[in-house]
Design a protein that fits this description.
heterotrimer; A alpha/beta (248); B mainly alpha (302); C mainly alpha (311); A: 248 residues; alpha/beta; Rossmann fold; six-stranded mixed beta sheet; four-stranded antiparallel beta sheet; 9 helices; 10 strands; 35% helix; 25% strand; B: 302 residues; mainly alpha; ABC transporter involved in vitamin B12 uptake, BtuC; two-stranded antiparallel ribbon; globular
Chain lengths: 248, 302, 311
């Protein structure tokens, strides 16, 4: 099956000091795919996400999104091109309500420079209320993010990215720091939201159950690049993976 | 017309001026490296150091003691100001605001600065002070037909170099110095090593303040002391420290020299714009190297 | 924002009748309100978590703009001079902002301080243009096309200032509620996320910076006209420090607080000047420390809540 790749990362290389965080890393993502990135700590998973979303510049290699070169471009431009991301630690505006967080994301998408209408009366406010409903956080709309438990903050963080209607989203450990039962609840909600807009997704994950349940494809990271890649079943049955990654 | 004399004179002036600015800037940088605070009141240490040294100088002259005593008196006033004024400030105030928002730290040190400016006027008045003993003792030297005071030409830069060398030595070869370097370069790692932060912070702050005060004490022998000199010095030393990269000690020496030379060239060639030059240099450097010339790039993890 | 508009309206109404009843308060209140505009400029920056120790620069820009225009004998009306003061300050802020808004916190504050001190020194040194340390006199312009006597002029300048303050407050309030103004808070609370919403924190701050400079410029222009004199001290750090002080005193976060703070400040200064002139800065400094150390919760914009995101 050869679908046209949405994202194509080729031969990425990045060293900090003596550490090689990306060592000839390549990955290709097809439209509509959900790819999980797994691997031990320090294998370069976050570095890969950071390079693809413009937070870090690779020393060599290239990233193309929908055929356009985006290597070394600022996060801002990458986001405007249609890539969104969530963070390992939620990056939210802590002094303002959950709804206002989302409204600011909405305003950013619609053009922050061309309106005098107060943010609270944004003409497309309902769209954000709908998004909150999809992720099951309607009741938290008027709470401050810091009053919410970690799992909910992660959802809001993902919703911030989704509010921009990206065609591709990177999620860095969407379910870390919450119980297994909650993990499934969160992922169900996230997947539903992704399907809503047919968003392609790449997510870094540690929990194998989550991976096997929600990913179409798994890329196992080791020493700054993909060590192994395949369907969840193939990867999880690999003897090296069973010894190395599971439970790490 | 630019003559060789003008250039030489400017270079010597710049050297002397740069040496003074270096002492203030290096203290500011040292303190920032460890405490992560830019002390807006730092220039006040310079000013108070100068006034205290001048008072000692006048006292020594009035008592009829040997004018050579003004030199140890300078060192004494620097330590006094660093320990008494600097120490009090750290213990009473700064200690309570570490780790708080930078805006708040700025506001607090700015408030301290306002208070210290008033205090200087209350104690020493608004009349200019000048002591000539240190200058007069050493006489002048003739270079290419220009009389130059040995004090400004040799003593001030010499002390700056001694300061730089001993700072380097302390930072590399003593326990305190290694801790200071470790904290400056990597905060988290240093915290993990179990450093007694309270003591290190206090010592660093007192040392930084003393160096600035010593810069002021040296200046008291070369320029007349007027109210407001502290404000100018805070900003200038920040310009030097920022040009070098905040926390960079050896870098501060290079930046101070650049800015000192640039300023004195302007004094001779376009005197109306001498104040502009240090900042032009800073703006130019920061335009191309936003973190300063000698900074180490740090990326926040997300 | 309804309650704030009501509160502001009520306050404006009360203020409007005070000078009618007690004529000697007119000048003092005019000055307080004008200074309040500069303070409002600081409040705008505080929204982004930034403080400028150099807004005296823009205040002086507005004032000297008026002084130059008046001494050029263009016979411009006060109602034209005031916005022109704001305009020139805005242009300078837009230009210098290209550099300044790349920095935050310490660097932002200190770079502003540096540029204002350069301006101060130049105003003093370029004697043949600026009148040096003596400053420049500003002849009384016409107001609304009418040449007024001193008392009438002072009275009408008060109402002009009050109207300016009302308009500025409304517009600033509206700006702070707009997406662009809310993004200013995002510069303070999480710039990483702001960038990942596709918005440039620098550009957001640049707009806020220009607006705050416009306010300071208008403020300086009014002072120049009311005082009839401008001096290099307008750009000195003490003046900038007072703006910041009043912003914190007034509660840092809100528009009405900026003006309430500056009226209180002006009244105290008028009375303190007689017996504590030598300790004025000490008083300001001590109160600033007391407010920050002991009443941080009262300062809505300055709560210690910026969490660092570390993995």
């Amino acid at each position: 099956m050869t679908r046209h790749p949405v994202l194509e990362a080729r031969n990425l290389r990045l060293q900090f000091g003596g550490v090689t965080a990306a060592d000839d890393a390549s990955l290709s993502i097809a439209a509509g795919e959900r790819v999980a990135i797994i691997g031990p700590n320090g294998a370069g998973k976050t570095t890969f996400v950071n390079i693809c979303t413009g937070y870090l510049k690779p020393q060599s290699g290239s990233v193309r999104f929908e055929g356009r070169e985006i290597t070394g471009v600022t996060p801002r431009e990458i986001v405007r091109n249609g890539i969104g991301r969530s963070f390992q630690l939620p990056q939210l505006f802590l002094d303002t309500t959950v709804l206002d967080n989302l409204l600011l994301a909405l305003a950013a998408r619609e053009g922050i420079w061309n309106t005098w209408t107060p943010l609270k009366r944004h003409p497309r406010r309902d769209e954000m209320l709908d998004l909150l409903e999809v992720i099951g956080l309607t009741e938290t709309a008027h709470q401050l993010p810091r009053e919410l438990p970690e799992g909910m903050r992660k959802l809001v963080d993902i919703a911030m990215a989704l509010a921009l209607r990206p065609r591709l989203i990177f999620m860095n450990e969407p379910t870390s720091g919450v119980s297994t039962r909650e993990k499934f609840a969160i992922m169900d909600v996230v997947i539903r939201a992704l399907q809503h807009n047919a968003t392609t997704a790449v997510f870094v994950e540690h929990d194998m159950e989550v991976v096997s349940r929600y990913a179409d494809r798994v890329a196992v990271w080791s020493f700054g690049r993909i060590g192994l890649e395949g369907t969840p079943a193939e990867v999880l049955n690999d003897p090296d993976v069973r010894r190395g990654v599971v439970g790490s | 017309m630019i003559s060789i004399q003008t250039v030489l004179l400017a270079a010597l002036d710049g050297l002397s001026y740069g040496a003074q600015v270096f002492m203030v800037a290096v203290g500011l940088s040292l303190i920032f490296g460890v405490l992560r605070i830019v002390n807006v009141a730092h220039g006040s240490f310079y000013a108070i150091g100068a006034y205290v040294a001048a008072s000692f100088g006048l006292f020594i002259a009035a008592a009829g003691w040997s004018p050579w005593l003004t030199y140890p008196a300078m060192a004494l006033s620097a330590c006094l100001v660093g320990i008494v004024v600097g120490g009090t400030l750290e213990v009473a105030l700064l200690r309570r605001i570490y780790g708080k928002e930078q805006v708040l730290q700025l506001l607090v040190t700015f408030a301290v600065f306002m208070i210290l400016e008033d205090m200087q006027k209350a104690v020493w008045g608004v009349r200019p002070y000048f002591i000539d003993a240190p200058l007069g003792l050493l006489g002048t030297v003739n270079i290419l037909g220009i009389n130059y005071s040995i004090y400004q030409l040799v003593v001030v830069p010499l002390f700056a170099v001694v300061m730089l060398v001993s700072l380097r030595y302390v930072l590399r070869h003593t326990r305190l110095g290694r801790i200071v370097t470790a904290v400056t370069d990597d905060r988290e790692a240093a915290a993990a090593m179990g450093v007694d932060a309270t003591r290190v912070y206090l010592l660093t702050f007192m040392i930084g303040a003393s160096i600035a005060a010593f810069g002021g004490a040296l200046a008291s022998g070369a320029t007349s002391l007027v109210p407001g000199m502290g404000a100018g010095m805070t900003i200038l030393s920040f310009a030097v420290a920022a040009t070098a990269g905040l926390g960079r000690i050896e870098g501060a020496a290079v930046a101070a020299l650049m800015i000192g030379l640039g300023r004195s060239l302007a004094v001779y060639m376009a005197p109306e714009f001498d104040v502009l030059v240090p900042y032009l240099i800073m703006f130019l450097v920061l335009l191309f190297k936003p973190q300063g010339l000698f900074s180490v790039q740090q990326t926040r993890k997300v | 924002m309804r309650p704030e508009i009501l509160l502001g309206g009520a306050a404006a109404f009360v203020l409007a009748i005070v000078p009618a009843l007690v004529p000697w308060t007119a000048v003092m209140l005019t000055i307080a309100l004008a200074i309040g505009l500069s303070v409002l400029g600081i409040v705008v920056l505080l929204r982004a978590g930034q403080v400028s120790f150099g807004h005296g620069l823009y205040y002086a820009t507005g004032a000297y703009t008026v002084a130059f225009l008046v001494s050029a004998r263009l016979s411009l009306d006060a109602l034209i001079l005031i916005p022109l003061g704001g305009l020139v300050a805005t242009l300078i802020a837009l230009a210098f902002g290209v550099f300044a808004v790349r920095y935050r916190d310490i660097f932002f504050a200190m770079i502003n301080l540096a540029i204002s001190m350069v301006a101060f020194a130049l105003l003093e040194k370029l004697y043949h243009i600026t009148g040096g340390g003596d400053g420049m006199n500003v002849a009384r312009p016409t107001l609304g096309g009418v040449r007024l006597g001193r008392a009438a002029f002072e009275g009408w300048m008060f109402y002009t200032t009050l109207a300016t303050v009302a308009i500025a407050s409304f517009l600033v309030g509206r700006y702070l509620d707009s997406p662009l103004g809310r993004a200013l808070e995002a510069v303070k609370s999480n710039e990483t996320r702001l960038e990942y919403l596709g918005v440039s924190g620098n550009r957001v701050l640049h707009v806020g910076y220009a607006i705050s400079a416009a306010l300071a410029g208008i403020s300086g222009a009014i002072i120049a006209i009311v005082n009839g004199h401008v001096a290099p001290e307008f750009a000195y750090w003490v003046r900038s420090g007072e703006f910041v002080f009043i912003a914190i005193l007034g509660g840092a976060g809100n528009v009405v607080g900026a003006f309430a703070g500056s009226i209180v400040f002006e009244v105290i200064r008028n009375h303190a000047a007689a017996f504590a002139a030598d300790y004025w800065q000490t008083i300001l400094g001590l109160s600033l420390i007391v407010i920050i150390m002991f009443a941080p919760d009262g300062l809505t914009q300055l709560r210690f809540i910026r969490r660092k995101a570390q993995s």
